[in-house]
Write a structure and sequence with these properties.
Blueprint: H1 6-32, H2 35-61, H3 76-104, H4 112-140, H5 143-172, H6 177-204, H7 211-224, E1 230-239, E2 242-251, H8 257-275, E3 278-286, E4 295-296
Parallel strand pairs: 2-3
Antiparallel strand pairs: 1-2, 1-4
Helix pairs in contact: 1-2, 1-4, 2-3, 2-5, 2-6, 3-5, 3-6, 4-5, 5-6, 7-8
């Protein structure tokens, strides 16, 4: 599509891959009748819904700032991640319900070898795509792509356990392993969903950058603000792919506006080189406003 960003293209590809994997896992369940493979297929239904939600959120977040949203629409991606976490939890509840029914009435597996082969192919596809999404998500600072990658990675781990478990059922004839494994799968994806929702809510609540990133920001300000006295009231927050940095820069009282602006330009250039998608606000103050705390300029 004309004008489509690379992130949107990746999100569209995620939808197609999720549909293909869902078809394969549904086939594996149909071949075997395994409740554990049913659980694995149900999680892939969530993958499809989550990929669609991520695509919609990425398209919204790409819109430029407007009169109603002067800071842009980047936070739309966090809503996608929260929705994905909620969908994971719903899937886990449905899996637990099915596992309980199968526990009460154990089922004999059919065509286990064929079903396991199909499931293994689907898991391999998910593993490769998850690795790709992690690389692209980190490079583009996209919460939606990273959320999708974490979910797929969880799916890969779960599917691997399911494949081993179903193979044990086929080898030993112990039918109870199948619903027990489905229940463990549900618990695993419940934890994944909770973790994802917690991280996404942190983004919606304007969570600050991690301590190591904050330390790097302070060091860059101290190094590149030569001519100033100090920087205080340093604040940071994330919004989608963007990092907002705000602070007050104290300069000598006799410094000209042009000189103070040159210092600000140096600091902004250094911070943007480090943070890439950074939006920086610097409030210049005369030395009488110094608080003698915060970042002392080297």
């Amino acid at each position: 599509m004309p004008g489509m960003t690379r992130i949107e293209t990746i999100a569209m590809a995620s939808v197609g891959i999720a549909l293909a994997v869902l078809g394969l896992k549904a086939g594996a369940w149909w071949l075997t009748g395994s409740v554990a493979l049913f659980a694995d297929a149900l999680e892939s239904v969530v993958n499809v819904a989550a990929a669609l939600a991520a695509l919609a959120a990425i398209r919204v977040s790409a819109r430029p700032p407007d009169a109603d949203h002067p800071y842009g629409h980047a936070k739309a991606e966090y809503f996608s991640a929260v929705l994905e976490g909620a969908l994971i939890i719903v899937a886990a509840v449905l899996i637990l319900h099915e596992a309980w029914a199968a526990w009460q009435a154990p089922r004999v597996l059919e065509q286990a070898s064929a079903g396991l082969l199909v499931s293994a192919i689907a898991t391999g596809i998910n593993a490769g795509w998850a690795a790709f999404l992690f690389r692209r998500g980190r490079a583009s600072r996209s919460p939606a792509l990273l959320a999708d990658a974490r979910h797929l990675l969880s799916d890969v781990v779960t599917s691997g356990g399911v494949i081993v478990g179903v193979a044990l059922v086929a080898l030993t004839g112990q039918a109870w392993i199948d619903p027990a494994l489905a229940a463990l799968t549900a618990v695993n994806i419940l934890f994944s969903g909770w973790q994802l929702m917690r991280e996404s809510v942190g983004g919606l609540m304007d969570e600050a950058v991690p301590p190591e990133a904050l330390g790097r920001i302070r060091s860059l300000v101290a190094k590149h603000a030569e001519g100033a006295i100090e920087a205080h009231d340093l604040r940071t927050r994330h919004s989608g792919r963007f990092t907002f940095v705000e602070f007050h820069l104290v300069v000598p009282g006799d410094m000209t506006v042009t000189q103070a602006h040159e210092i600000c330009d140096r600091v902004e250039a250094a911070l943007k080189a480090e943070l890439e998608s950074a939006i920086i606000t610097i409030h210049v103050e005369p030395e009488g406003k110094a608080k003698h705390q915060g970042v002392l300029v080297l």
